[in-house]
TrEMBL record:
One example GO MF annotation: transmembrane transporter activity
Subcellular location: Membrane
Protein name: APC family permease
Topology relative to the membrane: Multi-pass membrane protein
Source organism per UniProt: Nocardia yunnanensis
Region (Disordered): 548-568
UniProtKB keywords: Membrane, Transmembrane, Transmembrane helix
Entry keyword annotation includes Disulfide bond: no
Annotated Gene Ontology cellular component terms: membrane
Transmembrane segments: 12-31, 43-65, 86-109, 129-154, 166-184, 204-226, 238-261, 281-303, 346-365, 371-391, 403-423, 429-448, 460-481, 487-509
Domain of life where this protein originates: Bacteria
Length: 568
């Protein structure tokens, strides 16, 4: 969510928690419980606990660096500050893909729930679990409508965030109470294949591909805005714990209610794998003949994704602006409208990217959720490493929040992120690794065009990321069939390989960051090297692009300096 710069200072703890909850309750609650139950059965409850612990560790790592560098779109900048421009572009690219992909998936969620309407045209939006051509068209229309609202004024939508959050919070709670009161079958938790009918590996798959990671990803909003809270050191960790805890309680309640509400006769006939609803909670409410709940859920299917997309559109624009400021994206994409303050060129790029996703892999919420979740996990990798690098290279950096036991938490968080990436299943892993690594030849081409012939020096801090992603794709392709692989690497051995490689990569990456600082690749620090306490150095200086790439003067189109992209 975009908050005008004048209103960013002094965010209360309550406001920060509301921002986190508002981002966590997007389309994840509409589909997560249904998809997770289909994959893991009643054991899907455990998947939510694992997901919350995993995201919690990642989030607390980002809390330290986010509070130290409280800038818009800061998650796209940590790689540049820790390792220099090339790794900054690779990680910024990964973060941008993860955030921008959220824009169409929320519209897909609304469209799938729209197919549960009684109108014939609405029922034609879905067929055999996938969007029809009309459904894809509707999803794109919904994307464009929200995009147009943000195109003129994101701030207008931001003003109603608390109201939207209250509605988004209230409808899931109402659904839980109604489903439990209307018909709760305790035998569903132990019959029909047992508590984990598809094995415990399916629980790990549910964490990554069925919306668990996707749902908790809203913690990013707290990190990106938490540095402007009244007391960041207290507010950021407290808001993260508060938002994630409330989210976990509601998501587990939704999962339990869904499992208990499924008619036993359907489980007896098809098992959990056969429970495949286009609109999970609406379809369950229809089976229980709760017409009023159906209407409420259909209403919530518009409110929740639309409210979450306010943050998505704004955050994706920030990511593009940061990439443009590195010099690896066209400088024009960093411009903001002089009157409305919206990043219109960046928004056009994100709209085009949304259309591409809709036409290629966005045939259903579940189909795109796996890709989006894998992209999110890759975007998480730099956070724990940045903490490790900054602890060694910037001991004097002001840290409003200092992560306890960082030497243990950060390598563990990185290792869990690697495992979560593996759990996303082949070929999802291979697809997102390929898309992420496309940034490497782009970076090389831009550096060569600049006339920088010291490519080996520039690329050195980024090789750990390239090698690690290639390794992950290879193990995913050859690993256990439980995670989509060929089985050449036996089950159990595959996860052990991933964990050991991740632990080694973490220390490699931290040392690469230390060496990059010794070589001066990250450039001036945006906090430590600020001219005074009221000035933040420009993005071009922070990311080491230099005035020959971005220029220090005003742009032709806006007459404003690139330095004005960041608030003082």
């Amino acid at each position: 969510m975009d908050i005008p710069s004048a209103n960013r200072t002094g965010l209360s703890l309550f406001a920060l928690i509301m921002i986190g909850i508002g981002s966590i309750f997007g389309s994840g609650w509409l589909f997560g419980a249904g998809q997770a139950a289909q994959v893991a059965g009643p054991a899907a409850i455990v998947a939510w606990v694992i997901g919350a612990v995993f995201i919690g560790l990642i989030a607390m790592s980002y809390a330290e660096v986010g509070a130290a560098y409280p800038f818009p779109g800061s998650m796209a900048r940590f790689g540049s500050i820790s390792h220099g421009p090339v790794l900054g572009f690779i990680t910024g690219w990964a973060v941008w893909i993860a955030v921008a992909a959220l824009i169409p998936i929320e519209s897909i969620a609304s469209t799938q729930y729209m197919s549960s309407w009684s109108f014939s045209w609405a029922q034609g939006l879905m067929q055999d679990g996938s969007l029809t051509l009309a459904g894809m068209g509707m999803a794109f229309v919904l994307t464009v409508v929200l995009w147009l609202c943000c195109y003129w004024s994101v701030g207008l939508l931001a003003k109603v965030n608390n109201l939207l959050t209250a509605v988004k919070f209230g409808i899931p709670v109402l659904a839980v109470v109604s489903l439990i009161a209307s018909g709760f079958h305790t035998e569903n938790f132990h019959g029909y294949g047992g508590f984990a009918p598809n094995g415990w590996s399916s629980v790990l798959t549910a964490v990554s591909t069925c919306g668990v990671v996707f749902a908790f990803n809203g913690f990013q909003a707290v990190v990106n805005l938490g540095g402007a809270a009244k007391n960041p050191g207290r507010a950021i960790p407290a808001a993260l714990v508060g938002a994630l805890s409330i989210g976990l309680i509601i998501y587990m309640a939704l999962q339990i209610a869904f499992i208990g509400a499924v008619p036993p006769e359907q489980l007896a006939a098809h098992g959990w794998v056969g429970i495949n609803f286009n609109s999970p909670f609406v379809d369950i409410a229809k089976l229980l003949m709760l017409g009023w709940l159906v209407i409420m859920l259909q209403f919530g299917a518009f409110i929740s994704p639309s409210g979450a997309n306010i943050a998505n559109v704004a955050s994706a624009s920030y990511m593009v602006q940061n990439l443009a400021a590195t010099g690896f994206f066209p400088k024009k994409l960093a411009e903001s409208h002089p009157r409305y303050g919206t990043a219109r060129p960046a928004m056009w790029l994100n709209l085009a990217f949304s259309l591409i996703l809709l036409l290629t892999v966005g045939h259903s919420w579940h189909a795109l959720a796996g890709i989006v979740s894998a992209a999110m996990v890759i975007s998480y990798l730099i956070g724990p490493i940045a903490v490790g690098v900054f602890r060694k290279t910037k001991p004097e950096l002001p840290r409003p929040f200092r992560l306890p036991a960082a030497n243990l938490v950060t390598p563990l968080a990185f290792t869990l992120a690697a495992c979560a990436l593996y759990w996303t299943h082949w070929p999802n892993t291979g697809r997102i690794v390929f898309i992420t690594l496309l940034s490497v030849p782009v970076a090389v081409a831009v550096l060569w065009r600049r006339g920088d012939r010291g490519l080996a020096r520039q690329l050195a801090p980024a090789w750990w990321m390239v090698a690690f992603l290639i390794f992950m794709a290879t193990v995913s392709a050859l690993g256990s069939p439980d995670f989509g692989g060929t089985g050449l690497i036996p089950g159990g051995v595959d996860i052990a390989l991933v964990a050991v490689a991740a632990l080694g990569t973490y220390y490699w990456a931290v040392q690469a960051g230390v060496r990059a600082h010794r070589a001066g690749l990250p450039g001036p620090d945006p906090v430590l090297d600020a001219a005074d306490e009221n000035e933040i150095v420009g993005l071009d200086e922070v990311l080491g692009a230099g005035p020959d790439v971005l220029g220090a003067g005003p742009t032709e189109e806006t007459g404003q300096s690139d330095r004005n992209l960041l608030p003082a």
